[in-house]
Design brief:
This protein is mainly alpha-helical and 173 residues long. It is built from 7 helices and 3 strands. Strands 1-2-3 form a 3-stranded antiparallel sheet, with no helix packed on it. Helix 3 runs antiparallel to helix 5, helix 5 runs antiparallel to helix 6 and helix 6 packs antiparallel against helix 7. The protein starts with a helix and ends with a helix.
Length: 173
């Protein structure tokens, strides 16, 4: 692995390109999910909204109330996702220096494989797209963990870069 790094050093330009690519993929995914929402049918008594996953039937006079509740739910979801991300990030910073982590990393059935599974679940969770508005890309946390595995818990250019981003964003929240 060190031989590969020597041949392909991580430069700020490569980090920028990688981050931009990941951001573009998430934005495209987010936009395509938002385009699924459409009004399917309107009647005098009810409005049927199809968001691609489920239908909501509501009376027209309660549409504004539902929109307010929807905004509250999105804020609540965003806070939950941020809290989960922050917890996973703090866990990584806590165990990255342990001897077990240096020895096993994220090996299957190892002591830290569950952490990696939790990050991947968060990454695959549709609500994790809410983190984009905060400047957080969940896959970067996964990459940070994998970099710590490669470096045996030591700080590298990549880990310093991701830690700077995460600490700046989480301090603002």
């Amino acid at each position: 692995m060190d031989a590969i790094r020597a041949l392909m050093p991580v430069t700020p330009l490569k980090l920028f390109i990688m981050r931009a690519f990941i951001l573009i993929v998430f934005v495209i995914t987010f936009i395509s999910c938002n385009n699924r929402s459409s009004i399917k049918e309107t009647t005098q008594d009810a409005l049927v909204i199809n968001n691609g996953y489920s239908s909501i039937i509501t009376k027209p006079d309660s549409i504004e109330k539902n929109q307010e509740k929807e905004v509250e739910l999105v804020v609540l979801d965003a806070n939950q996702v941020v809290e989960e991300f922050e917890l996973l990030y703090k866990q990584l910073l806590f165990f990255k220096d342990s001897q077990d982590f240096k020895k096993y990393g994220f090996a299957i059935n190892g002591p830290y494989s569950e952490w990696l599974n939790n990050v991947q679940d968060l990454k695959d969770n549709s609500k994790s797209k809410l983190l984009l508005s905060e400047g957080i890309i969940v896959v970067e946390l996964e990459l940070l963990g994998l970099e710590y595995v490669s470096s045996k818990g030591k700080e590298t250019t990549v880990t310093r870069h991701f830690n700077t981003i995460f600490s700046e964003v989480l301090d603002k929240l």
